[in-house]
Structures are given as C-alpha cells and as structure tokens.
Amino acid sequence: MPLTVYLMAAGIFSMVTSEFLVAGLMPQIGDGLDVTVSQVGYLVTAFAAAMTVGGPFLAAGVLRLRPKSALLLLFGIFLAGNVLAAVASSYAVMLVARLVTGTASAAFLGAAISLSVRLVRPELAGRAVSVALNGLMLGTLLGLPISTFIGERYGWRSAFWAVTAMTVLAAVATLVWAPRVERQESGGSSAGGGLRQELGVFRNRRLWLVLSTSTLVIGATFSAFSYFNPILTEISGFSAGSVPLLLVAYGAANLVGNVIVGRLADRYTIPVLLTGLISNGIFLAAFALLADVPVAALVFMLAIGLVGITMNPAMATRVQRAGNTGPLVNTVHSSFITLGIIIGSALGGLAIPHFGLIAPVWIGVGMAALGVVTLLPDLRRSRHSSRVAAERPVAASAAGGADEDANRPAAKVG
C-alpha cells in the first residue's frame, strides 16, 4: 500500500480526534466557557451539521486544485478552526470554530479517500479505503481516550493544542511525501470536465439510493452507540469507571472489522453489505433483549462493533461504482454518513422519554432492516448478471454444435 494512503489515515485520525474531543470533555469545556453541558452538546451537533452541509460545498470549491494542493489547503482551514477552538474566549467563538473544523473535516475525508483510491490498482480500491479509514477507527480507539486524558490532566485547551500538533505533523508529512498528481475529473479521467460534470453524476437516481444505504447503515449503529454509556451503567450494571475500557474494546472491534471488510469490499461488495446489515440487526436485537445480562451485553456490543461502521469500505466502493471516485462524490458520501449519525442519535433521544433507554437500540434494528430494503435493486441486478453470464456458455455451446452439424457432410441416401 502506498505511503500516502497511511498519511491520509493520519490526517483523518487528527480530525476525528478533534470531532470526538468535545464529547469527552463536556464538563470541562462547559466550565471554561461558562455554559451548560447541554449547550456544549450542541457543539457536537454543530460539527456534524457542518460536515453534512458545508463539506460538499468546500469540496466543490477545491475541485480545480491538484489533490495535494487541495489536501494542504484543507489542512490549513482545519488548523485555523482548531486553533480558534483552543483560544476561544466565548461560546460563540467556539461554535464558529466547530463549524469551520467540521466543514474542513468532511471535505478532507472525501479528498483523502479519492486520492487513496487513485494511487492503487482498481482491485485494491476497497483495501485502500480501509487503510485510510483506519484513521477513523483509531480516532475512536485511541484519539478519544488520549484527548480526554490530556484535557482532564492539563485542561481542555491543551487537548485542542495536542490535536493541532498532530495535524501539523500530518500536514508536513503530506507536503513532503505525498506525490503530485493531476486533478481528477468526473468519470475518473484526468482531463477535461469540471464542477458541472461532477454535479452531473448526481442525476443518477441509483446513486441516491446507494447513498441512502450508507445513511441507514451508520444510523442503525449510532442509534445504539450514542446511548451505550447509560445503557451499560443503568441497565447492564457496569460501573461508570469501566465504561471507557468497554468503549476501547468496542473501538478495537471496529478496527478489526474494518480490516476484514476492506479485504472483501472489492470482490464481494453487495454480499458484504447484506451480511453486515442483517448481522447488525440481529446483534442489535440481541443486545436490546439481553442488555440486563452483563456478559451478553458485552458480547453483543462487541459484535455490533464488528459489523457496524466497519461497513465503510464496502459502502465507499459501492458509491464510487454508482458515481465516480472523485472527491465531491466521496465528500457527499461522508455527508450522508454523518446524516446517519444525526438521525440515529436524534431518533434515539426522542424515543427514550417515551419508551425507555432500550428504545434507541430497537430503532437501530429498524434502520438496519430498511438498509436491507435499499440493497434489493442491486441484489436483483447482480442475480440477473449472474444468470446472463451462466447462460452465455450454454448458448455458445449450442451455437458451436449447430455449426458442427452445418459443416458435417450430408448422409447419402440409397
């Protein structure tokens, strides 16, 4: 795998760590800015909303740049936002900082995945996406606990400065070692085209269906993940001190699943997604039914970690086949993924007051089932293609037999 793909993972890691940082340090940030914890929670929502809405516009704005130049510019925008967060003197300034960093993160994710795919052979595209997205998985596994530790020990501003340092290192490494390649146009060619052609891809109705699958895959997982902490402590009976360790184990399951899916995504895209969605629905249902049994809750939580957000490489491969491998398509895909996080967590929050803490998990089951429905057209298409391919040898054999009969000398009569 090219070194640049690992550099993309490093950049994604620093940005994801910044995204999760606020969630891990809500009380400290609230005290520092003299606001409530619920107001700090809106900063998490603002980051996600900026990724969903602002990311595609920024990605479109850097389309005319070469990939390396676009990445360095996005690094710069993210750094400006992150430094602003570190020195924020008021809630309003912090809100602006989160909007800037969220927008830059989404555009960077799309550009990083696009470049990673371009640098490898087509049959390795899914694996390249998997390696780049290891930065996302490691952000959950290591970035969140490390930034939380730094923030609790040295103050929440120090955590933002630590992310700034990581981002500078990733940017410098990209500047030094990333190759200079030409910008990519719609359809994967390197010449002609522009924003109009990139936007033209979105006229494909199948692409929107494919994007909706990704929203449902991630929404199904985050409807439960967003409430793991209270479920594990109030229903499963785990101590509050043990939850961070359980979430680290969940992050490790994410990392393992991401590697496995990355190796299968190119050849078995639809089967992987179908298996992942069905398995996730089953594991979510089992978690909901057995949440009051500590061992069972832990087992099924880890199982969800193996088949939830780990579907990302297969989802990205499917989106690129329906659209193209350009940065705009990949950024819009990341927006739909973030939309899944927003929808899953929001529906769960709305359901809890009426149906209890387990309600978000059942919402996840429903979203996984809807995800399977969105795969049905591709399943029918792949079965039809397989049937046609199977019939071709038979038809060719019959044609060959007819040719032999035609060329065979006629039998003499009498």
Task: Describe the model.
With 414 residues, the protein is mostly helical. 81% of the residues lie in helices and 0% in strands. It is built from 16 helices and no strands. The protein has helices at residues 3-24, 26-33, 37-61, 67-86, 91-118, 125-154, 156-177, 195-200, 205-225, 228-234, 243-264, 269-289, 294-307, 312-322, 327-355, 359-407. Helix 1 runs antiparallel to helix 5, helix 4 (67-86) packs antiparallel against helix 7 (156-177) and helix 9 (205-225) crosses helix 15. The longest helix has 49 residues, at 359-407. The model is unreliable at 186-193 and 402-414 (pLDDT under 50).
Unreliable parts: 186-193, 402-414
Largest pleated sheet: none
| Average predicted confidence as pLDDT | 88
Anisotropy-based shape: globular
Helix/strand structural class: mainly alpha
- First-to-last CA distance: 75 Å
Secondary structure: helix percent: over 70%
**H-E string:** HHHHHHHHHHHHHHHH
Strand content: under 5%
* CA gyration radius, whole angstroms: 24 Å
What's the helix count?
16
Total strand segments: 0
Can you lay out the helices and strands and say which pair or pack?
Blueprint: H1 3-24, H2 26-33, H3 37-61, H4 67-86, H5 91-118, H6 125-154, H7 156-177, H8 195-200, H9 205-225, H10 228-234, H11 243-264, H12 269-289, H13 294-307, H14 312-322, H15 327-355, H16 359-407
Provide a compact summary of the structure.
With 414 residues, the chain is an all-alpha fold.
Write a concise keyword list for the protein shown above.
single chain; 414 residues; mainly alpha; 0% strand; globular; disordered C terminus
